[in-house]
Automatic annotation (TrEMBL):
Protein keywords: Chromosome partition
Cellular component terms per the entry's GO annotation: intracellular protein-containing complex; iron-sulfur cluster assembly complex
Organism for this UniProt entry: Ananas comosus (Pineapple)
Superkingdom, taxonomy of origin: Eukaryota
The UniProt record lists the keyword Disulfide bond: no
Name of this chain's protein: Protein AE7
InterPro entries: FSCA_dom_sf (IPR034904), MIP18 (IPR039796), MIP18-like (IPR002744)
SUPFAM superfamilies: Fe-S cluster assembly (FSCA) domain-like
Annotated ranges, domain MIP18 family-like: 19-79
Length: 129
């Protein structure tokens, strides 16, 4: 089952289609998300994605994390707990961003913001370049 989840994992196998909000490149091309940065525990119904922002002061780190969370929530069975993290030592406000990305109430509030949701949808929309 774990292999099937990894093979079907949209973050890994469709990441070429996930664009960075500030760059015309995919998250894969920028090495923000790699296959090695995704952990799936089928027994515990848990998925963890650890991503690396492009720079230490990346202003879009929270947006990138929200994009990853939304894609996984839409793609995985609802029994899975999704944990999105910034790679340790790769962002100036790592602890704050991690807290925001994994707080259900903050995520729900962010997704109610239509402007923010539009940015997320744009990041998740397929590119044909």
């Amino acid at each position: 089952m774990v292999a099937e989840l990894i093979n079907a994992n949209p973050v890994v196998y469709e990441r070429k289609e996930r664009r960075d909000p500030e760059h015309p490149y995919s998250l894969e091309q920028l090495n923000v998300v790699t296959e090695d940065s995704i952990e799936v525990n089928d027994e515990k119904s848990h998925v963890r994605v650890t991503f690396t922002p492009t720079v230490e002061h990346c202003s879009m780190a929270t947006i990138i994390g929200l994009c990853l969370r939304v894609k996984l929530i839409r793609s995985l069975p609802s029994r899975y707990k999704v944990d999105i993290r910034i790679a340790p030592g790769t962002h100036a406000t790592e602890a704050t961003v991690n807290k925001q990305l994994n707080d259900k109430e903050r995520v729900a509030a962010a997704l109610e913001n239509l402007t923010l949701l539009e940015v997320i949808e744009d990041c998740l929309s397929p590119t044909f370049a």
